[in-house]
Amino acid sequence: MPEIIDGKKVADEVFAECRRDLADLASRGITPGLAVVLVGDDPASQVYVGSKVRRCRELGMASFKHELPATATQRELLDLVAWLNAHDEVDGILVQSPPPPHIDEAEVVRAIDPAKDVDGFHPVNVARLALEDPSGFVPCTPLGVQRLLMASGVETRGAHAVVLGRSMIVGKPMALLLMSKGRGGDATVTVAHSRTRDLAAVTRSADILVAAIGRPEFVTADMVKEGAVVIDVGINRLPAPGTKTGTRLVGDVDYAAVAPRCRAITPVPGGVGPMTIAMLMANTLKAARLRRGLKP
Ligand code: NDP
Question: From CA 17, how far away is CA 151, in angstroms rounded?
Answer without folding.
Answer: 14
